[in-house]
TrEMBL record:
It comes from Maridesulfovibrio salexigens (strain ATCC 14822 / DSM 2638 / NCIMB 8403 / VKM B-1763). It comes from the Bacteria. The lineage of its organism: Bacteria, Pseudomonadati, Thermodesulfobacteriota, Desulfovibrionia, Desulfovibrionales. Residues 223-321 form the HTH araC/xylS-type domain. Transmembrane segments: none annotated. This is Transcriptional regulator, AraC family.
Length: 331
């Protein structure tokens, strides 16, 4: 029998709204709205609709939202503004930062599929207190958002990351009560905020290169080199072999990878292997040892260390979390 994650524990010692319903016309639902601090709210929503669920939204003023799809699928369609006709398909691992004032649209959830979505809702004032001394270093749109002077939406999706999923699992399965529960949830929420903002700031910071810009034909060679590099993960080419294969010298090859992919040749190869491992572990068809060998690692401990360094937790723990993701709610 499949084990099911524990139900959401009740909140008693701080402001919390919890609602649950089983076997209603819309299916099973469980919702928590937890005020952790002034300007910082955690929401957790689990749903298993009996029919395709469509909910509309129409926002005037909007807080800053950090959204995480823990399991299941959601589809969000926008009907006005700069995001008009845009459709977001969200699934397990999707995460982002959203500031969507004066925005409307619909959210769809498929029937008979358990969806668990977590949101961290923060006020501009709450975040502004952390960045008051280095506001000028923030991305311009984010500065304006914190100053309440941004008319443009922030609509950013971050890289999927097992470390984030691990924190979400800890939040959902928290068994503490009272003050300990509040303290535990606050710490995990602040960790998630830090991770999300780090990824967002990094993606919004323009990269600069002092190297001579590449010609279009050199860019094509670099892209060809990237494909050849990952053809055989168990026997990758050397830098010299790679340069000869695409017909450029090693120096231009190294500089080219920096310009085109913003990483080194080795960094590109390492990231591809880690993402491949992520996909294979998430799929669940192979165990950790089989995944390690399939992407070219002969030493399991080296693979585990590399995976933890990249994603924040060991591959065996990540695979355990993935099994929880596919476990439905108690009926």
């Amino acid at each position: 029998m499949k084990s099911t994650p524990p139900p959401l524990a009740p909140s008693r010692e701080y402001k919390s709204l919890e609602f649950s319903a089983q076997n209603g016309i819309l299916g099973s639902r469980c919702f928590q709205n937890i005020l952790l601090r002034p300007g910082l709210t955690l929401t957790i929503a689990k749903t298993t609709p009996r029919r395709n669920l469509i909910a509309s939204f129409d926002r005037d003023e909007a807080p800053i939202q950090f959204g995480f799809t823990y399991s299941g699928k959601n589809r969000c369609s926008f009907s006005n503004g700069t995001l008009r006709n845009q459709v977001d398909e969200m699934q397990s691992g999707s995460n982002g930062i959203f500031y969507l004032p004066k925005m409307c649209g619909i959210i769809e959830r498929p029937k008979d599929q358990t969806s668990c979505v977590l949101g961290i809702i923060v006020s501009q004032q709450f975040l502004r207190e952390y960045f008051v001394d280095n506001m000028s270093e923030l991305p311009r749109d984010f500065q304006k958002t914190l100053d309440n002077s941004n008319a443009n939406p922030i609509h950013w999706f971050g890289p999927r990351n097992p470390a984030k999923q691990h924190l979400l699992t800890q939040i959902i399965q928290c068994q503490y009560e009272g003050g300990l529960r509040k303290l535990f949830l606050e710490s995990r929420v602040m960790d998630l905020l830090s991770m999300q903002l780090h990824d967002y700031f990094k993606s919004e910071t323009p990269t600069r290169s002092a190297s001579q810009p590449l010609r279009p034909d050199d860019v094509e060679r670099i892209r060809e080199a990237s494909k050849f590099l990952i053809c055989d993960l168990e026997n990758p080419p050397s830098l010299r072999e790679l340069a000869i294969h695409v017909g450029i010298n090693e120096r231009k090859l190294k500089n080219g990878f920096r310009q085109v992919f913003d990483t080194s040749v080795f960094g590109y190869f390492r990231e591809f292997r880690m993402q491949k491992a992520y996909d294979l572990l998430q799929r669940g068809d192979q165990n950790v040892t089989e995944v390690a060998f399939s992407i070219g690692y002969q030493n399991l401990s080296h693979f585990s260390s590399a995976f933890k360094k990249r994603f924040g937790l060991l591959p065996k723990h990540f695979q355990t979390n993935q099994r929880l993701l596919t476990t439905p709610l108690n009926k």
